[in-house]
Amino acid sequence: MVQEKLVKSLGKWYRADLNDKESVKEMLIQAETWITSLEKSGLPGKYKAWGYQHGVLPRLLWQLLVYEVPVSTVEGLERKMNTYLRRWLGFSRSFCSISLYSTGSKLQLPAMMLRDGQDARVRQVDIEVRTGRKWSANRALREAEDRLHHADIVGSVAQGRLGLGCSTKVSWVKANPKERRGMVQREVRDMSRL
User: Fold this and answer.
1) What's the gap between Cα 14 and its chain centre?
2) Residues near 143 by beta carbon (within 8 Å), at least 6 away in sequence
3) 110-135 pLDDT, tens per residue?
């Protein structure tokens, strides 16, 4: 029966020779057609990346889980997908692949370092970080600094059963520039969660 028709179970095709080579070739062809259909869709780049993340990637991951795919084939597929992702997100070709997938290392904007730096000429330059329509880096920076100033004025407040003075918090006025950058980054992340 297997020689007459292919048998499919849990998304895996079983062939007469019980070898996954043909299935892996079909998977690569299928991945190429999915990614080229996304490329030709006419959508903006971020929507193409979203389509890849929520449409193509789950299908590929299941096939990579089910079939025995060589590591070299997976690396080649990853390189191909990364080139499309870089193009869609507007990154250069030399952009590191770790930055595409890393969740721990955030790409940090040096706006405060330039504005509060020691060089007077650099401080005088009005740096405007161009962002999208919905979110502005300069506005988020101002709002975070205003919230930190306000928290400084209010002072430490008791939370839960802890009494006053149980938790220490660095004051905005007393913080050095490095601590201030860290405080602003945490505040911007907290604001984005709201």
Assistant:
1) 36
2) 191
3) 566 666 777 777 667 666 665 656 66
The single-letter code of the amino acid at 19 is N
Say yes or no: 12 and 68 in one domain. yes
Same domain assignment for residues 57 and 75: yes
Q: In terms of DSSP H, where are the helices of the chain? A: 21-39, 45-51, 57-66, 71-89, 97-101, 111-115, 120-124, 137-154, 177-193
Question: Both tokens of residue 65?
Answer: 């889980």
Q: Is residue 70 part of a domain?
A: yes
Q: Cβ(46)–Cβ(88) under 8 Å? A: yes
Measured between alpha carbons, how far is residue 173 from residues 9, 145, 151, 169, 170 in Å? Answer: 64, 11, 11, 12, 9
For residue 129, give both structure tokens: 């970080």
Dmax (CA) of the chain: 80
Give tens-digit pLDDT for 131-187: 656 667 778 888 888 999 898 888 777 777 776 667 777 888 888 888 888 888 888
